[in-house]
Amino acid sequence: MRVIWVHGPDQSHYFCVSQITNVFRAVDGGEGVSQFLLMGHRRLRLTGVVEDDPLSVTVEHVKDKPYDGSQDVIKATVMEVVTTMKDLIRLNPLYKEHIQLFIQHMGEFNASKLADFGAALTTADEPSLQEVLEELDVTKRLYMTLTLLKKELELSKLQASIARGVEEKISGEQRRFFLMEQLKAIKKELGLETDDKTALTVKFRERLESRRQGCPAHVLQVIDDELNKLQGLESSSSEFNVTRNYLDWLTSLPWGQYSEENFDVGRAQEILDAEHYGLADVKERILEFIAVGKLRGSAQGKIICLAGPPGVGKTSIGRSIAHALNRQFYRFSVGGLGDVAEIKGHRRTYVGAMPGKMVQCLKATGTANPLVLIDEIDKLGRGHTGDPASALLELLDPEQNANFLDHYLDVPIDLSKVLFVCTANVVESIPGPLLDRMEVIRLVGYITDEKMHIARDYLERAAREGSGVKPEQVEVTDGALHTLIETYCREAGVRNLQKHIEKIYRKIALKLVRSDLLKNGKINNSNVLAESASGTESNGERIIEELLDSGEVATLKSTDSATTLSEDGESETSKVTKKNEESTPIEALYVDDSNLADYVGNPVFQSDRLYDQTPLGVVMGLAWTAMGGSTLYVETRVIEQNAGKGSLQMTGQLGDVMKESATIAHTVARAILREKQPDNSFFSDSRLHLHVPAGATPKDGPSAGCTMITSMLSLAIDKPVRRDVAMTGEVTLTGRVLPIGGVKEKTVAARRSGVKVVIFPSANQRDFDELPAHVKEGIEVHFVDNYSEIFDIAFCERQSQAGDNSPQAAEVVQSVDVSPMSVKHFYSF
Ligand code: ADP
Asked: Where are the compositionally biased (Polar residues) regions (predicted)?
């Protein structure tokens, strides 16, 4: 027998007694505790305790108050209790088991037992249940039980709705989870798994791992934050893409990765010599720079600016410096650049935002100390949103670039180890603050001799290798090269020469392949001949060109193959015909003076000289353009003579300075004439016309002053100037000669035009003395302080002129001296 004590609120004790047979279930609760499910039979009230151990008590039996079960109220309440219990079962199947047990063991059914059972079924609190237990009026007890059951029903309903909500949520998430898993599997199957968030994170972390050491703490922090952010973003959202791209850039920069610098001056010298001919002074400056780098331990600080006309090797020297120093090379041009974002990057929020050129450079080179060549710094544009020059300044200035802030990257990067080299055509156009921080190295251009060497030793070899022609298959004579330089490629640089040499080698390749094809009978000879004779492009030619393009040349050409010889510049047709007739196997192709035009077309230049002997009133001056130096004539003629009607008009696209200069020249010429020939009234009686040919090209500058005076005086004293003389110099009203710019360019130009005597202002003597000996070779130079000295040199005893004073008799060698380059460029005097 077991006793369960139930304490009432007034400390009275009730207990239920159960016979042992009524223990429904014994459950082992673990840890020595057992649970029993009991069925109460009747109510007892404790009246006293007889003994504590073992417990012995006295009780009194308590009975329900008598009631009539057939009463409508009881019946109705019973029915309602049963209905509520049914509802409960429907909501919570747990109750079903209890009810089945109750039905099996309750014996005869009555309202009292139903009330007790109904209350026991609920999860009501102890006091409520105690109330039911103590209630002896069955109708009331039933009512109390019904209330508890209704509450229980509501609770169950709530529980059900909570369960439903939770279930829905869970199943929604589960559905999503399953779908995602499926998607992953599909992507994996299709090889599209790359964008997966975790894969991305792993990728970025792995990439960063090798650079973590050199990565500044604040950058690591940003990367970590961004990686965390990425995890929380929807992979289809635009923000996800922005973050991913950002992380991609951040993790692919070479944080703390440097290429080991080589300061070996001997090796650098070898590399510079192997890649460039001449340029001794430029190479020397570069070696000095490397030597300083060796002593200091790093080659940064100064920014080198290579200035000179196009094609003189500025870019390739830059590449050689990188090679010599063992740095990675990166080049970008800022010509016409107006958008600051090109340098500083766009803000990340913009669609398609990109970092600036420097960040791109670091990513591309993979080292934090590359050599960066900034091309065309003199042609920097002007932006409407910020000034690119100041952005460049921030980039180049060693004081600022250790913490360069790119708008896209948004974390400072250290560019102090980057070596900057700039190139420019005209130093004067470089913005002042930028120029201040640069060390300018001038490359002025090459004279014919230098070009010959460059062509022979560098350009020809490269062109031959590029076209696949073997050295034994071709010979380009010195004469042909000389003509090429003198009459096709006269500009300061060698890029045009390089193009022409490449053109020659392409044509040679075509000839070699054609001769092979013809020999092997792959092309119908008669067809080729007929069509090429009619001047149209032949099928054969087209086929050969296609073959050349498709690389079949290599298979068609063999070292021992016979080739055609074209010694005499005959037309294609006649050469091929001759070969067919004679079928002579020929070893090599010769390109010489006579057949050069077959390869490169007709010459562009005839002569730099307009006049073989300058007529009266014509004097050669020296100018310079962004393309290098140039010789230009100043011409003066008399329009009409009228006593006291002396005047001057000028043409030739002259700028304001040059017009003023002409007026000054007119005045000075008058003064000189008055001094030399006091009786000569030429200037007061003559209407003069001064012209500077190449009328399409704008010209300006003061340094044609002395040339203009000489030209006017030549007319006044009726005497042509000395043969082969050229001059330059600004003249003041009193006749003093002031210094000019571009001495080397002008000297090179004078030599190219076959000038023997050059007149420079005295103040320029130092510039001239600094020129390499081979540039000065063969030139008679006069340095003057005053115009009267020029007068003496220019009008001294004429050489080899058989009294031929008349301007009409002077031979005009070429109608106009217009080089294809010079017309596009501004002449500075
Ligand atoms: P720039 O940058 O001054 O316009 P580049 O550097 O592009 O000229 O030079 C044009 C071409 O001429 C390059 O192929 C370069 O190798 C060649 N070149 C220029 N100067 C020399 C030189 N002194 N020796 C050998 N090749 C040269």
From this structure: 556-566
Residue 499 lies in a domain: yes
Sorted by sequence, the CB contacts under 8 Å of residue 66 that are 6+ apart come out as none
User: 457 CB contacts (<8 Å, ≥6 apart)?
Assistant: 277
Active site residues: 703, 746
Clarify whether residues 298 and 314 are in a common domain: yes
The answer on 581 and 663 residing in a single domain is no
Claim to verify: residue 218 and residue 335 sit in the same structural domain: no
Q: How many whole angstroms from 275 Cα to the centroid of ligand 1?
A: 9
CATH number, position 455: 1.10.8.60
Closest CA relative to residue 98, chosen from 1, 157, 35, 25: 25
What is the reported pLDDT for 98? 76
Counted residue by residue, the chain has a size of 829
Enumerate residues lining ligand 1, CB below 6 A: 276-279, 310-316, 423, 454, 458, 493-495, 498
* Tokens coding 211: 């650079």
**Cα-Cα-Cα-Cα dihedral of 563, 568, 571, 573, to 10°?**
-40
Q: Tell me, what CATH number does 45's domain have?
A: 2.30.130.40
The binding site comprises 308-315
435 lies in some domain = yes
For position 133, what pLDDT does the model report?
Answer: 84
Tracing tokens 């059972």 back to the chain, one arrives at 117
CA distance 564 to 560: 13
Query: Which residue reads 């010459």 in tokens?
Result: 603
The residue to which tokens 């893409």 are assigned: 241
Token representation of residue 763: 């103040």
User: Same structural domain for residues 217 and 348?
Assistant: no
| Statement to judge: residues 520 and 560 lie in one domain | yes
Whose CA is closest to atom 19 on ligand 1?
Answer: 313
For position 522, what pLDDT does the model report? 58
**Same domain flag for 538 and 676:** no
Domain end call among 11, 38, 62: 62
Residue nearest to atom 17 of ligand 1 (CA): 313
394 vs 93: CA distance, rounded Å: 78
Query: Which residues of the chain, if any, have pLDDT below 70?
Result: 1-30, 106-107, 191-196, 299-301, 383, 385, 520-587, 604-610, 612, 626-628, 695, 797-829
Nearest CA to ligand 1 atom 20: 313
Q: Strands 589-591 and 474-476, how do they pair?
A: parallel
Q: What is the pLDDT of residue 193?
A: 57
Q: What is the pLDDT of residue 269?
A: 92
Q: What DSSP line would sit under 151-207, residue for residue? A: HHHHHHHHHHHHHHHHHHHHHHHHHHHHHHHHHHHHHHHHT-GGG-HHHHHHHHHHH
Quote the pLDDT of residue 554. 37
Q: Are 627 and 769 part of one and the same domain?
A: yes
The answer to whether residues 654 and 799 belong to one domain is: yes
Q: Alpha-carbon dihedral of residues 277, 282, 284, 290, nearest 10 degrees?
A: -110
Q: Is residue 107 part of a domain?
A: no
DSSP assignments along 509-536, one per residue: HHHHHHHHHHHTT-S-HHHHHHHHHTTS
Q: What is the CATH number of the domain that holds 368?
A: 3.40.50.300
| Beta bridge pairs of residue 618 | 635
Handedness of CA 239, 242, 248, 253 (dihedral sign): negative
| Tally of structural domains, the chain | 5
Identify any residues that bridge with 371 across adjacent strands, giving them in sequence order. 329, 419
What pTM, to 2 d.p., does this model score? Answer: 0.61
Residues 11-54 have pLDDT tens digits of 555 555 443 345 556 666 667 777 777 777 778 777 888 887 78
> Which ligand 1 atom minimizes the distance to the CA of 375?
2
Cα 730 to Cα 634, 693, 715, 768, distances in angstroms: 14, 19, 20, 17
Token couple for 411: 């974390």
Contact between residue 406 and residue 356 where contact means Cβ atoms under 8 Å apart:
yes
Q: Of 688, 691, 689, 687, which is closest to residue 633 (Cα–Cα)? A: 691
Structural domain range at position 477: 448-600
Helix, strand or coil for residue 475?
A: strand
